[in-house]
Amino acid sequence: NGCTASSPTPIYSRIWRKNTGCRPRMTPSYVLDAWALLAMLQKAEPAATRVIELLGEAQVENASLAISIINLGEVVTLVGKVKGESAAWETLAELQPLPLEVLPVGEDFV
Q1: Interval 34-53: pLDDT, tens
Q2: C-beta atoms surrounding 51 within 10 Å
Q3: DSSP state, 102?
Q4: How far, in Å, are 26, 48, 75, 83 from residue 52 at the CA level?
Q5: Is residue 70 within 8 Å of residue 78, measured between CB atoms?
Q6: Residue 103, C-beta contacts closer than 8 angstroms, at least 6 positions apart
Q7: For the whole model, what pTM was predicted?
């Protein structure tokens, strides 16, 4: 009937497959930290390849991918320190269209 099961991963979110008669399937969810995103930007292997794979999975909705606003800010700040403010803004602009949910952080977590 076209229903598929995802492989086990540490964190899951439920997605309902509309109009298929399928039960909800488990979709793997991943939360990236600043190091993972920096590894991708710097093409540091093997992490860069894995992050790119996860972004591909998120693009076709086979996975959910997120980063906290604090970790995103850390990436932009580190790029700015190394390459300058202009490069930091360019990096942020390059990251914005990616299938990456930016998670807010409340005061309780800071």
Answers
A1: 999 999 999 999 999 999 99
A2: 22
A3: E
A4: 21, 6, 16, 22
A5: no
A6: 31, 66, 67, 68, 69
A7: 0.70
Please report which helix (H) or strand (E) contains residue 72, including its range: helix 69-83
* DSSP 3-state of 30: strand
In the chain, the amino acid numbered 59 is Q
**CA-derived radius of gyration, the chain:** 16
The ranges of the chain with pLDDT < 70 are 1-25, 109-110
Buried b (16+ CB within 10 A) or exposed e, 6-37: eeeeeeeeeeeeeeeeeeeeebbbbebebebb
Q: Which amino acid is at 22?
A: C
Alpha carbon distance 77, 82 (integer Å): 9
